[in-house]
Amino acid sequence: MLKKIRAISHILLLTATTFSILTLPTTKCENSQDLGFYIKSSSTFVNEGGGIWNLTTEDRSWPLFMNNSWQTVCVINYAHPLETIAEDTDGNKMAVFQYQSNLQAGERIDDYIVYHVRSKPCSIRSSDYAESGTLADIPNDLQEKFCSGHGFWMTNDPQIREKALEIAGNETHVLRVVAKLVSWIWTNIRYESHDPTLYPNETLSSLEGDCDEQAILFGTFCRILGIPSQLQVGCIFQPEWNSSSDDGQVHYIQKQIAWHAWSITYVPPWGWLPVDLTYITGSHTDALNAFRSGAVTLQYTVQSMNVSENDYLASERAYKDLLQRNDFSLYVTDEMEESSAVLGDLNWDKTVNVLDIAIIAKAFRSTPNDENWNATADINKDGMVNILDMSIVAREYGETG
User: Fold this and answer.
1) Fold of domain 349-396
2) C-alpha–C-alpha distance, residues 183 and 181, integer Å
3) What's the pTM?
């Protein structure tokens, strides 16, 4: 999973976008109704060294996730006043918050943000090789924008170019080319995580990589062959998953959440399609399962951002070097829990009404140590039931789902 990206994601401007996948080759999802989730992300910057830690705009930024035909994500709480809504180089939207611009030796600052997600069923049609367009059907403007070799897309690397051309052979139908690339990666690249994240030439030479490393190598192959490709990142609700990691500078905790990356690739006539190399529910004997049954086709997956211009691999290495050289520490926690799909619907009856007000009233002014505490009534996840939670129910009153 993509924990190393998430641990510094809001720092590296890996944030949300309004990009929407319109047509995907897969079958219907297993659920026929909307699902709901809360996501809470928190970070603590600690200056344990002797110098000054100058916090950047990126340090003060949080992602806003995607809003599209599959999901609606809203921010319901945050720690500091909002300064502005901005975009990174890939058009991903982020919220920038106001707080001190530097940390003196021994100082720390805490930050957090809470989201509510409404995930909709993804009823989408299938496709086959016979319907696929050719390389000549790809628009020139997309090739110019999404086939370049800037950032971590090492399209001019001779070994990567040789391998891409060898795999594709004389095939010109895009879906068949993409399937050949998927099959080669599944056969030859072993799943293994690295810190820092590998560049595609390193993934190819070592023949190992995790979700984003394999997706970046795949995308580099595609770009060399004239097939537009980007990286997409999201999180997956996993109720049995809890983990922690600590490299001395970045201390990361995951609770019921796992971060994941996959490719989105332009295949005519369907357009942008997801290609998942490492998280599929189908067999590896059919390369089209990378389209049909990847993580993005599940309602438990929340799409977060696209990456094309942003070389977060370089940013990751530079940031870790900054932390290590100056004895700075970053503590990050991500949590995800299931909720009603309707924000404010505390009793899960698909309607926000007086019954939900009654739940908050019963737990009003309580904290986790009180007898009348009810975590469900703490909608904004600030550790207390108060007028802020009541105001959310009042705002959403009458909403159904």
Assistant:
1) Type 1 dockerin domain (1.10.1330)
2) 5
3) 0.90
